[in-house]
Design brief:
heterodimer, A: about 450 residues, alpha+beta, Immunoglobulin-like, 5-stranded antiparallel beta sheet, 9 helices, about 20% helix, flat, B: about 1250 residues, Leucine-rich Repeat Variant, 5 domains, 39 helices
């Protein structure tokens, strides 16, 4: 298992070093510094084996996180753990920076002690950890509370503690979809998929059991069999959100290629009955992730026209078309058009928004605050180049960022029901908010 | 000095603070201590002061102290003892967190003395009431084991740990599993963690409830379990599959590991396994959207999975396309997987991507992409050419590393496809100077040496390399040596000097023993036996495998057991990177076979037996082939019968062309007349086909002279053997070479045994791995050969083993005309791949036993067949052989003598042969005693029509110049013919249902077609590629036409519209839709500036394109076909009321009505003759009707087939000559006008003389409306 965890700053100075196993010596810390951080040639793999010791590392801003092991351990688990650790640290003290790490090193040690025991990852749920590892020194005093903590750490429901109480039972659902697209120059879709996340913020009392319904094809088919539920679910309190897209997509069900759930979801129940039921952690968490590849409505299309005129001039024309209902508005639109490194001057002309050439990033950045559906906008640029004998510039793809108020995959929340048997509140007492956000993932058009 | 003091001062300060009374100050001081510790400062002096802080009941403070303790206990064991008491006390603390903390820390203090004191508290904590303490204690056992194994055994902690497996808390179970797994891994001999059914059950239950990490521990443990049987394995798989939806990639990968392992135990064909395959792929794809590091781990594992079971991800090619921002390690790995998934169907896509990658920036990545293109070429034969041309393009870029990489892969391509792409050698040679890497240089030298005879200046090139010989890499030196020796063997005269130079260099001036030895060997070979040298140096190269970088199968299996772990990331077994400890080698479970006796045996003997089994097979196989050998030996022909053999062989050959009767080329040479009225269409007979001993040749008979010439050469052919009853058996020939068959070599022959056609084959395994699951299929062929039984080959077939087999064939299978007729297409499948090859069936195996004919019938038939149908030939070189012997020999081969006479001192033999498909061949043999020649003549007539077509032809169309014709049919294909040679040139596919109309462009480069599937296709004639597919019609497309420039396609559909498509545009929407018709549009015709359509709304519509006007003519009948006259003044419309009407286009006047034929249901087409004098139409009673245009008098109505009343619906007139093509059912007929000058009606009636049916083969039955 994991033999040790080190955190370095960008200079290679060690900020945190926690060794769990005897087989990891002090020299391992230096080995990584010498062979990876200070290596003349940048290491090309995220796992390196130096003198029969394996180093798993990842970099956040300029902080290196590294896990060391001498055994044949589960590599996927190590990386998952490193990511989890980053997540925990972020939720404790925000951005991972040298300063933050230095300031919180006691806390980090304490956390490392708790989430890794002898190199075995232990309960790493932020919510639970926060209940007994605190910076302020406020600790559970009563016995009862102590046992609550331990049962939370080890229990079946490791992600929620007992006895939570809210005056107002409220929950927020965010369906956040990122659309990934790779389009060829000719406008042919090479690959596209939607990676969706359902983020839930729950402020519910007690141990509520939730049931979640989506318009997944299989689920819908299952549902038509037992019509019973459909009548119940029409309590329209779910749709308070102003941004709820009434009918962006007409289809009723979508085909989800694959989905993953937060550990609170009962997977066996999903497998057998295709119903998503769970007891939510308190506060914010990611309930579900899914991926779809079929019938994705691409919100924007970029049509590039790049012409090289001689050796020192280039003409770029970009047309952006929005492809959704005219009543909706896309926001935070940013198109990044790469330019050759030997660009010396750029003349820009755009119909809408602001465009700027950023020579440090070798790109023209064209920003539009908002753009309605079924609209079209255009940018043309003349790029002057310095004569350059070096090899041909290979054109990186044009990338795009945006945010739209609907789910491009056609995903819809059908219902979310809350049952709490011990406390006296019912499904209709909870206030529910649903929001759909379509974002760009890697949204690229080759040019 | 000052620094030292400063440090001391600092420590002094800390000491003071640690001993202060205030808790906050203490804590701050401790923090400082820990901070110093982290950066590596020695703070061990503070040990006692820190220990003192332990007493305080403050969790946070305690944690810090413990952290310090863990770090320094080892260095100061005596002091550490002081802490023991506190630990013991803490272990009894009411706060479970403190209890757990104590246990956790104790285990981390590796001091023997402390360890002893650990046991009691640990025991207590293992039974603690709080699960948090128990789960910590479980891990502590593992810690203790790491320090002192014996202690753990002695104290019985292991049993306690095992008890924890049944704990109610899943987290405790998970940690216990983790601890046990590690312990059992470290001392496997103890068998401490034996997984059995009940344990697995407990684990599976805990799996559903514990944390993500716990699930990983449990899944990894389950993967070490070997299920009792396939049911056990299946039920575990069922319970694990839900885990694939977990958000944690480690859980997913560990589940995949278990599933992949247990899959081995399951019946691969079962539905469950297929389902599992389907479920496995999406989660793996999802992993590719995780963080790059996790992606990397996933990709490395997918690489393994794809090698083991390529089916799982075979449809997911696109997800492995490289994204611009992927880290380089992800890119490289994706590329690797892409190649593994490449196959013929997705090669185009992959190649386009690879081309894109080859222009990227990263050198490594570009190199790998270039190499990948080469690997594609080797893997997918169909794409080899495209790959090579891509590589050549890349070489033209002159980017140094690209060129070098390309040359290395081109060398491999040369090895895979020898003598195919040498044309590019010149391009390669141009880049000789830029090569600086040893591998590229060596490859180039290899190419030059290998193809020395085709490179004019090969000697100069190699000499150039030789100049800097000493500085070269060994690899290059060796290659250069071999290359020059090859060159010498190929061009001995000019290169003597060069070879001496290199040999001297190598043998006298080099230190490398390899090089020197090889030099000596060559030298000796060359000086003693140049011939042997040639055999050695220029020997045939061993096969190059298409998967050059596959992992070795046993290693792959081992790595599959390590999915998710480091071993799977490194692609190395754990012992290569893990230190010291004894590591159990994991391997995939074996699926137990249901051999009765084996089931009772233990695992050990099972493996023994499976090892033995194949050996028995080997022996029996050898025995079989021995017997076969004897059989052949015993029946070797007597020397005296030799000439007879040759004769007979010739006889066979002569006959082999018999079914080729329909070849009209031949008939025109022979000047054969066909008899229109008679019910026996005499067909000419014979030509000769070449023997098939050495090469596969065609039997197209238009070059009789050549054939006979060849024939004479072949009469002396050797190596003919007879089996038992003197039936002629051609020697076995290699049908499938090992090079093509990936190591499988098939040789065989055909023989007629006890009235059955038997295919005798030898299967030889020249590969390195055993082959099994051999199966054989035969494509449709001229005589309907089909296997009567499945192929019986005792499998597996071991390397270097040859197994003979016999396969009885029936002649009841589907029939398709082959070219040559005796050609047979065979497919052989084994566990590696499917292979296709052609072989020639010797015609004599088709001679049926019951070929004897009544004498009278014979005479009658003989006389009926005209002289023109006779082929005469003389055989030279014939020994004296009594005529009786001759007769007997021939009878054995089913050539029956009917009668024998002597005329003018010549012996005449009259004989018959009957083919399995019922065709009789009559033979006359003339033997002059004393003379060594036998002359013979052959005649036949067709008794039964050659049944070929199984589908109907919907349309025939001449192309623009009339040299070719197109047909489309209900088999969903379009075929291109050369009608005068009845030669099918190409078949176009793409329609999913019947094709109703087809038209070719003015330059013959494109086709358009429409069909029942509502599609309009735009097809490239040369490649058959579908350029455009238009799918906007709502109903079947009845007619399609190009405009004159072939830029636009008009299509008429049953949906009542004519749609106009611009083929040059990128849009897939019609540029115009003419929806004036109220009912189905049945046909369309194009004039210079007009478009004419007919519709079932009984109207003809004329669209004038210049003015944009529409003229509508109401006709009053349902209209089916329209044809514009050549002068564009009139048009002819076919109606469903059995009349064809001729209208004046300008004023719409009815000029003429043609009647006396039947047309009530089908869409019968009509045509004008080229001079607009005659009107032709098909008819529903199977006739071709011709009218005089002016008089409307019916000139002729010719039946296609005497007894066939099936409708003739389609016809096309030759654009220049007086020829017509019609089709009835599946046969195409060509009609030619006899003499244009003759005006008399009676004679015109006979004017169509050359009625020649062309058989249209390859109709797929079923699958359409």
């Amino acid at each position: 298992m994991i033999g040790g965890v080190f955190i370095y700053n960008h200079k290679g100075e060690v900020l945190i070093s926690r060794v769990y196993r005897d087989d990891i010596g002090r020299n391992a810390v230096d080995a990584f510094r010498v062979n990876v951080i200070h290596a003349r040639q940048q290491s090309r793999f995220p796992v390196v084996n130096i003198a029969r010791t394996s180093f798993f590392y990842t970099k956040r801003s300029n902080i290196w996180l590294c896990a060391v092991a001498k055994q044949n351990i589960n590599a996927a688990m190590v990386f998952e753990f490193l990511n989890k650790m980053i997540e925990i640290m972020q939720s404790y003290f925000g951005k991972i920076s040298e300063e933050n790490v230095k300031n919180n090193f006691v806390l980090i040690y304490e956390l490392l002690d708790e989430i890794l025991d002898f190199g075995y990852p232990q309960n790493s749920d932020t919510g639970v950890l926060k209940s007994f590892i605190t910076q302020q020194g406020v600790r559970p005093v009563t016995r009862e509370e102590q046992t609550n903590v331990t049962s939370a750490v080890t229990g079946q429901i490791g992600w929620r503690r007992e006895g939570i109480k809210y005056r107002r039972n409220e929950l927020f659902l965010d369906v956040i979809e990122s659309v990934n697209l790779l389009m060829s120059q000719q406008g042919q879709v090479l690959s596209t998929h939607v990676a969706g996340r359902i983020v839930m913020k729950s402020y519910l009392s007690g141990m509520p059991e939730c049931k979640f319904g989506i318009n997944d094809k299989i689920t819908v088919e299952n549902r038509t069999k037992n019509q019973l539920e459909s009548t119940n679910s029409n309590n329209n309190s779910t749709t308070n959100g102003s941004t709820y897209p009434s009918s962006t997509t007409a289809k009723t069900a979508i085909a989800i290629d694959d989905c993953q759930f937060h550990q609170c979801v009962k997977l066996s129940k999903f497998e057998s009955e295709h119903s998503i039921s769970f007891i939510p952690p308190d506060g914010e968490f990611e309930l579900m992730r899914y991926r779809t590849t079929k019938d994705i409505s691409l919100p924007f299309r970029v049509i590039p026209l790049v012409r090289e005129i001689g050796r020192t001039k280039m003409e770029v024309k970009i047309v952006v078309k929005s492809n959704f209902k005219p009543t909706l508005i896309g926001q935070k639109i940013e198109i990044r058009i790469p330019t050759p490194p030997n660009t010396c001057d750029v003349q820009l002309l755009c119909m809408k928004g602001k465009a700027k050439h950023k020579s440090s990033e070798n790109a023209i950045v064209w920003k539009m605050k908002r753009m309605g559906g079924m609209k079209e906008s255009q940018l043309s640029a003349e790029i002057e180049l310095l004569p350059n004998d070096k090899k041909k510039w290979n054109r990186p793809p044009i990338s795009m960022n945006f945010e739209v108020p609907f789910a491009p995959s056609g995903f819809k929340v059908r219902y979310l029901k809350v049952f709490e048997h011990k406390l006296n509140y019912s499904d209709s007492d909870t206030i529910k908010w649903v929001r759909y956000i379509g974002k760009s993932g890697l949204y690229e058009t080759r040019c | 000095m000052s620094e030292f003091e400063g440090k001391k001062g600092e420590i002094y300060e800390l000491k003071a603070e640690l001993n202060s009374d205030k808790r906050e100050r203490k804590k701050e001081a401790l923090k400082k201590v820990i901070a110093s510790m982290t950066v590596g400062k020695d703070v061990s002096q503070l040990f006692p002061d820190v220990i003192n802080c332990m007493q305080i009941d403050n969790l946070e403070l305690k944690k810090l102290v413990y952290l310090y303790l863990m770090n320094y206990a080892k260095t100061q064991p005596e002091m550490a003892i002081l802490a023991v008491n506190t630990f013991a006390k803490d272990c009894n603390d009411p706060n479970p967190l403190i209890r757990a903390l104590a246990v956790r820390t104790m285990g981390c203090i590796r001091v023997d003395k402390i360890t002893e004191h650990l046991c009691e508290p640990l025991r207590k904590c293992l039974k603690d009431e709080d699960p948090y303490v128990r789960k910590t204690a479980a891990v502590c056992v593992a810690k203790l084991f790491d320090i002192n194994q014996q202690l753990v055994f002695d104290q019985g902690f292991l049993d306690m740990l095992k008890d924890l497996l049944s704990d109610s808390n899943p987290m405790v179970v998970a940690n216990a599993v983790a601890a046990l797994s590690e312990i059992s891994e470290q001392s496997p001999q103890t068998k401490i963690f034996d997984l059995n059914g009940p344990t697995i059950n407990k684990l599976l239950t805990a799996l559903n409830e514990c944390s993500e990490w716990g699930q990983v521990f449990i899944l990894d443990a389950i993967s070490n379990y070997s299920p009792k049987d396939d049911k056990d394995a299946q039920s575990i798989c069922e319970r694990i599959t839900p885990r694939l939806a977990h958000a944690n990639s480690a859980v997913v990968l560990s589940s995949v590991k278990v599933l992949m392992k247990f899959l081995e135990l399951l019946d691969q064909q079962s539905e469950f396994v297929q389902n599992l395959y389907r479920k496995l792929s999406p989660p793996l794809v999802t992993l590719l959207s995780a963080e790059p590091e996790i992606q990397y781990v996933a990709l490395r594992n997918i690489n393994l999975i794809v090698q083991k079971r390529s089916d799982i991800l075979k449809n997911e090619m696109k997800v492995f396309f490289v994204k611009y921002n992927d880290p380089i390690y992800v890119k490289l790995e994706k590329l690797d997987i892409m190649i593994r998934l490449t196959n013929a169907t997705n090669i185009a896509q992959v190649l386009a991507e690879l081309k894109e990658y080859a222009t990227e920036v990263d050198v490594d990545f570009v190199r790998k992409s270039v190499r990948a293109i080469g690997r594609c070429a080797i893997k997918v034969e169909q794409a080899a050419e495209r790959c090579v041309s891509t590589l050549i393009d890349l070489i033209q870029t002159k980017v140094n590393y690209v060129v070098q990489e390309a040359i290395v892969v081109i060398k491999d391509i040369f090895r895979k496809y020898p003598n195919k792409y040498e044309s590019i050698i010149a391009t390669l040679c141009e880049n000789l100077d830029s090569l600086d890497e040893p591998e590229a240089r060596a490859s180039m030298i290899w190419i030059v040496g290998e193809y020395a005879e085709r490179i004019d200046n090969a000697d100069e090139l190699l000499e150039g390399f030789l100049d800097g010989f000493k500085d070269e890499n060994t690899q290059v030196q060796l290659q250069l040596l071999t290359g020059i020796v090859k060159l010498f063997l190929k061009k001995p005269t000019e290169t003597q000097e060069l070879v001496t130079r290199v040999l001297t260099l190598v043998t006298q001036e080099t230190d490398n023993p390899d090089l020197r030895d090889r030099g000596y060997i060559y030298w000796r070979l060359l000086s003693t036996d140049p011939k042997a040298a040639k055999e050695v140096v220029l020997a045939e190269k061993p096969l190059i495998s298409e998967e050059t970088d596959l992992l070795e199968p046993t290693l792959l299996d081992e790595l599959i057991c390590h999915i998710g772990s480091l071993a799977s990331v490194y692609h190395k077994p754990p012992n290569t990177f893990v230190e010291g400890r004894f590591i159990m080698k994991k391997n995939l479970p074996l699926r137990s076979r249901s051999y009765g006796e084996q089931e009772n045996n233990t695992g050990h003997t099972t493996t023994m037996q499976t090892n033995q089994q194949p050996q028995q097979v080997v022996i029996s196989g050898n025995v079989g082939s021995l017997i076969d050998d004897f059989d052949i030996l015993s029946s070797m022909p007597m020397p005296s019968s030799n000439p007879m053999d040759t004769y007979e062989q010739s006889q066979n050959r002569t006959a082999s062309a018999v079914p080729n009767l329909l070849d009209d080329e031949l008939s025109s040479i022979l000047g054969l007349d066909s008899n229109l009225g008679g019910n026996q269409t005499p067909m000419m007979n014979t030509n000769t086909s070449l023997p098939n001993n050495n090469r596969q040749t065609t039997s197209i008979g238009n070059e009789l002279e050549d054939l006979f010439g060849d024939f004479n050469l072949q009469t002396g052919g050797a190596g003919i053997s007879f089996s038992g009853n003197n039936v002629f058996v051609p020697p076995k020939e290699v049908w499938l070479s090992a090079a093509k068959g990936k190591g499988l070599e098939v040789s065989g022959t055909f023989v007629r045994r006890s009235n059955q056609i038997v295919m005798e084959m030898d299967f030889t395994n020249k590969a390195l791995q055993p082959m099994n699951d051999l199966a054989l299929q035969i494509n449709r062929n001229s005589f309907g050969l089909t296997p009567a039984q499945p192929l019986q080959v005792t499998s597996p077939l071991f390397p270097n083993q040859t197994v003979p087999t016999q396969l009885i064939l029936n002649t009841t299978g589907p029939i398709m005309r082959m070219d040559p007729l005796t050609n047979l297409q065979v497919a052989i499948k084994n566990n590696i791949d499917i292979f296709y090859f052609n072989c020639i069936v010797p015609i004599h195996v088709y001679f049926a036993q019951d070929g004897e004919m009544d004498k009278m019938t014979f005479v009658q038939t003989w006389q009926e067949i005209p002289e023109g149908n006779e082929v005469k030939h003389q055989l030279q070189n014939v020994n004296n052989l009594s005529i009786d012997d001759l007769q007997n020999k021939l009878r054995l081969n089913n050539i029956h003598t009917i009668t024998r006479t002597a005329i003018e001192q010549k012996e005449m033999l009259y004989q018959t042969i009957k083919l399995t498909n019922g065709i009789f061949i009559l033979v006359e043999l003339r033997i002059t005693p004393g003379n060594r020649t036998i002359s013979f003549s052959l005649k036949t007539k067709l008794e039964r029509k050659f049944p070929a077509a199984q589908g109907a032809i919907r349309c025939v169309r001449y192309n623009i110049d009339g040299n070719y014709c197109l047909t489309s049919g209900s088999d969903r294909t379009i075929k291109l013919w050369k009608p005068d040679g009845s030669l099918a040139i190409k078949t176009y596919t793409g329609h999913s249902q019947e094709v109703l109309d087809v038209h070719s462009s003015f330059d013959n480069s494109r086709l358009c077609s429409g069909g029942v599937d509502k599609r309009v296709l735009y097809i490239d004639v040369m490649t058959g590629k579908i350029m455009k597919k238009y799918q906007a019609h709502a109903g079947r497309v009845q007619a399609v036409r190009f405009n004159e420039e072939a830029t636009i396609i008009f299509s008429a559909s049953i949906d009542g519209t004519v749609k106009i498509w611009d083929v040059k545009s990128r849009e897939y929407d019609p540029i115009q839709v003419l929806d004036d018709a109220k009912d189905s549009v049945t046909s369309l015709s194009l004039g210079n500036h007009e478009l004419l359509t007919t519709s079932l709304d009984q109207r003809v519509r004329i669209y004038d394109i210049r003015y944009g006007k529409l003229f509508e003519d109401y006709i009053g009948h349902n209209l089916t076909y329209i044809n514009l006259s050549h002068d564009q003044q009139c048009f002819l419309v076919g109606t469903l009321s059995s009349q064809i009407m001729l209208f004046d286009k300008v004023n719409g006047k009815l000029l003429q009505t043609f009647v006396d034929y039947t047309n009530n249901t089908y869409m019968i087409e009509n045509a004008f003759s080229n001079d607009d004098q005659f009107v032709y139409s098909g008819s529903e009673n199977g006739r071709l009707i011709c009218w005089n245009l002016l008089t409307a008098k019916q000139i002729s109505a010719i039946e296609h087939e005497p007894d066939n009343k099936k409708a003739v619906s389609t016809l096309t007139h030759h654009p220049k000559e007086d020829k017509l093509l019609t089709a009835q059912e599946g046969t195409i007929y060509i009609w030619k006008k006899k003499d244009e000058t003759e005006e008399k009606e009676e004679e015109i009636k006979e004017s169509f003389i050359n009625k020649k049916p062309i058989n249209v083969p390859q109709f797929v039955s079923g699958g359409f409306e």
